[in-house]
Structure formats: structure tokens, C-alpha cells
Amino acid sequence: MTASLTITNVIKAFGKKRVIDNLSFSVRPGEFVVLVGPSGCGKSTMLRAIAGLERIDSGTIGIGDRDVTRLDPKDRDIAMVFQDYALYPHKTVYENIAFGLRVRKVDSATIAQRVDEAAAKLGLVHYLDRRPGALSGGQRQRVAIGRAIVRKPKVFLFDEPLSNLDAKLRGTMRIELAKLHKDLAATIIYVTHDQVEAMTLADRIIVLNGGTIQQMGTPLDLYYHPRNVFVATFIGSPPMNLIEGQLVHADGELIFRSTGGIVVTVPKAFRDTVERLAKPGETLLWGMRPENMHVEEHPVTKTKPVHSVYDARVSVTEMLGASSSVVCDILGHELHIMLPEPHRPKRGDIIRLAWASKHFYLFSKNSGLSVSEDLNG
Questions:
Q1: CA 277 centroid distance within chain
Q2: Burial of 59 (0-12, 13-18, 19+ CB in 10 A)
Q3: Do 150 and 118 form a contact (C-beta atoms < 8 A)?
């Protein structure tokens, strides 16, 4: 049976350095929550604290209606899947999956039933007599997941379980994990530094940096409505472009003008918020996602201001199949642009680019917070 998870004011320090700094969040029963962030942000330490492998300095950890803060790992009713599989090389797949149940002195008939069920879910039925050394990386990871499944814990904890796999296997395992979550209706806390994994798997994402929560929400919430520069550049691949400049009033419009001369009219839907949150004369960062620029193939008209179209010199083009990742220069700003077929510009080409999006991103350079949406209350 799944359970909720409640983290309240958790602090963990190593020496004088706080790795987790007064963290609080909750996870609903059956929810898939991903902790994501760069190396050293505190995500794995938080996961180990939930598991009971790290003792916290203060705060509480609750699973369901129990306070498990001071309980040993074996008493928390959790199962953890590690990055390195942690399989016994001399035991068969069957014995590896069954090991935790045998330690808990579960009867043989129940063990056989649970192992068979897990093997069927994970495509391991034909591998139960093999040893880990005879399996691929993806199969070994499935064995580690099977060992967790048979425990039937209230909470599953995954610590970067796909990072040792190659790109193709990672993609396959992401799909399998998403299917498994729906099948089990399990409460899952998943740690990764890979924002693609986070976007693919999560019901909600918690973005960590420096031991604090930068933002939490659904994948699309974080992608379309980043609270600050860190989230804006961490979520999305390639990351959001940031261009420095200031606001000016011209011809009844509110204009963002970059130091190089890129000019963008603040959309009317955002103008009131920008004028309220941005300080007069403040240096700002305009955020532009790579997929929000397109090749302009039509003549500029009165309905399309000249300043919305720019000549860009291409320096690098990466062919990605149906699209191309292009690094180009616009008025001294190096920008990353995603272009769909048939556009495949070569190095040195001049292309005409226009910005178009219903989403508008503007951040304070000083605080890093959004001034285009009031997300900071």
C-alpha cells in the first residue's frame, strides 16, 4: 500500500557546510516526484535521509501517518534502487530478487509468488536462473528494481538508476519506469541530474540548488513558468538564451532593448506585471527559448516591426534528424536556436530570424527572479 511523504524543515550539514538547508515538501500517495539539480545540490543526500542512511540535524520526515525521522532504514517501509545496481554476483536473478524477503523470513510460497510477479512485470521470466554477469546493464537494473518491487514498500526511492546505461538503454528504461509506475500506482521519489528524465517521468519536479528548493511543480509548469534564472536555464534542452538589457518606453510601448541592439516589445498581457516588478533603470535578462525563433521567409510588413526580424550569422549547426540545433550571432549575442526541417544552415550562412511566442520571460539580473510573471509570492 502506498503512502504520502512529508519533509518538514530538514537541515543536514557536513561540517560547516549545509547540504540541505531547511527543506520542506510533501508527496501525495502514488505520486512520482523527481528531485533534480546539478551535482552537489543536495538531492542524493535528501534521498538518503528519507531512507535513513543519513541522519538529519533537525526537522522531521514522515511516511504516511508515522514520524520515521529516528527510525532505522529497515523500519521505514521503503525500498531503494541504487545507481550501481548492488547485486550479488554469485546469486541468480531469482535469488537476488528474493534476497530481501528471505532476510525478513517471508515464507517460500509467498517469495515464489512475488518474484514471479515481479519478473513478469519486468520481462525477466527467462533470466531467473542466470547470474548478473550474464545480463546486460538494462537487465541488471531491472533486477534491482524487481528486488524493490517484491518488498511492496510504501515508498520507492530511486538514486540516479539510469546514469550507468548508454543513451539508447536510458530511453528504453525511462519508458519502462513510467509504465511500471502506472502499473504499481506507487509513491516514487526519484533523484537525477538529467532534466530530460525529470520531464519524462515526473508528476511533479522539485528543482534543487545549494540545498534549497528553487521551484516545484509539474514539468510543464517549470518549463513555461520558471520562477528564476536557474530554473529557466536548467529546464529545457538546449537551455534558454539570456540577453542583458533594459526597459524603455517608446511610441506608447514598453520595450526591452539589449546592449547589442536587440529590441523586443513587451506583450500587453505581461506589461502591467513587468512595470510593477521591474525597478526603474534595472538591468534585466530577456529569456528566449531556442525553439521560439524561426526563419522569417516573408517580407517585413507594418504588422511585423522591423526590429522583430534579425540577420543571424551561423557558426555551428548540429543535425538532429528532423531538426537542427544552430549556434548563431545576432548583433553580438551568441544564441542557440532550434530549427525544424527543411532549414539546415551551414557555417557562415546568414539567416533571417524572428522571435514569436505567447510566452515572455524577463528576469532581474540582480535577484535572478522573474519580473514578467508574479511567481515569487
A1: 27
A2: middle
A3: yes
Q: Residue 286: beta bridge partners?
A: 243, 362
E strands, 167-240, are 188-192, 204-209, 212-217
Of residues 8 and 195, which shows the higher confidence score? Answer: 8
Strand 188-192: give its sheet, edge to edge: 78-81, 155-159, 188-192, 32-36, 204-209, 212-217
CA distance 59 to 48: 15
Rounded to whole angstroms, the Cα distance separating 29 from 231 reads 26
Cα–Cα distance for residue pair 219/206, rounded to 1 Å: 9
Residues 332 and 374 placed together within one structural domain of the fold: no
> Are the C-beta atoms of 340 and 219 separated by less than 8 Å?
no
The domain that contains 295 carries what CATH number? 2.40.50.140
The CATH number assigned to the domain holding 367 equals 2.40.50
15 and 31, same structural domain? yes
Mean pLDDT of all residues in 167-196 = 86
Checking DSSP bridges between strand 204-209 and strand 188-192, what pairing results, if any? unpaired
CA 319 to chain CA centroid, Å, is 24
Q: Which tens digits make up the pLDDT trace of 303-360? A: 544 446 889 999 998 888 888 899 999 999 999 999 888 888 889 999 999 887 888 9
The answer to whether 154 touches 63, Cβ cutoff 8 Å, is: yes
The type of residue at 357 is S
What is the Cα–Cα distance from 193 to 43, expressed in whole angstroms?
A: 9
Residues 347 and 253 in one domain: no
Residues 223 and 309 in one domain: no
Domain co-membership, 207 together with 228: yes
Does residue 142 share a domain with residue 214? Answer: yes
pTM for the full predicted model: 0.90
Please confirm whether the linkage preceding 342 is cis (ω < 30° from 0).
yes
Of 214, 288, 241, nearest to 21 by C-alpha is: 214
Q: Is the pLDDT of residue 302 over 80?
A: no
Domain that holds residue 321: 290-356
Interatomic CA distance for residues 267 and 309, integer angstroms? 16
Question: Do 147 and 181 share a domain, yes or no?
Answer: yes
Extract the runs of DSSP E, i.e. beta strands, from 160-250.
188-192, 204-209, 212-217, 241-250
C-alpha 362/C-alpha 283 separation (Å) is 10
Q: Lowest-confidence range among 80-84, 129-133, 141-145?
A: 80-84
Query: Which strand (E) or helix (H) includes residue 99?
Result: helix 93-103
